[in-house]
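ESCALATION

Customer reports they have been waiting on this structure for their group meeting. Please prioritize. Original submission:
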Amino acid sequence: MRAGFSVCQLPPPLKPPDLLRVIVPSGTLREVDAFNQGIEIWRSRGYHVQLPQNWNAREGYLAGTDSQRRQQLLEACLDPQCRGILCARGGYGSARLLEDWIWPEQLKWLIGFSDITALLWSLGQIGISGVHGPLLTTIAGEPEWSLKRLFDWVEGRPIAPLKGVGWGGGKVSGVLLPANLTVATHLLGTPLQPSLSGVILALEDVTEAPYRIDRMLTQWRMSGAMAGVKGIALGRFSRCAPPKDVPSWTVEEVLRDRIWDLGIPVVSDLPFGHDGVNAALPVGQLVELDAEAGTLSWVGG
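Update from on-call: job pushed to the front of the queue and completed.
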């Protein structure tokens, strides 16, 4: 029996000129201009940002071999001067680093989303809170309020509630567990899946046809993974249109069909995910989901 996903410890607040180390744990880097812009955003705030060796390596679709990418993560964790870890991009590959992985004793920020879900979940299981938030290749596209939100959180200041569309079902509090739906689905039944009892899931996805979203959510239902989930916060499901000239539900209809009858509070259309604003979501923190008002807010924050 897995232990419940507990409230996670926050790393010490960042402050310039803290050292932040970059890792490229997933797909090979293609968006070099956006990557450089992302580094400059952090540097312009006064942080020292250090790139790893082999940051531009390529091994098929991966950003180097597993050993190269795992070494980046290990060095960042072990560096006593490093206060935070910035993930370069998503894609695929972070879960491969976690086979037989043991986190070194450390307490520092880990920031990313999409494929970084695997790292965030794994870190959360040892009780450390990461941030489901912009990658170095996406942060330059964030509006000012989203950048401020990210910096406010990691620098120790409170953040405002997020507003979406409430589906009804009341109000509930629980521990926030954000994820990319596809990545999280492939973690079900592995040691990286925590107990989901008492959590509020925050889900987003990109480039998945409606029938694939249906298939994944059906897997969650049939595996029993949804049992004990207290509420669901839905972000953006972008570029999830059905194939051309193929009869289909819309992704919105699939989400209603697979989630509504769970009988738990749901808020959709929250501003996080791909292809738009990706508001920072702290992993493993107490939140309140109000499905009447359509809000996701931080208890005590």
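Sent to customer with the following note: The chain has two domains: 19-155, 162-298.
Escalation resolved.
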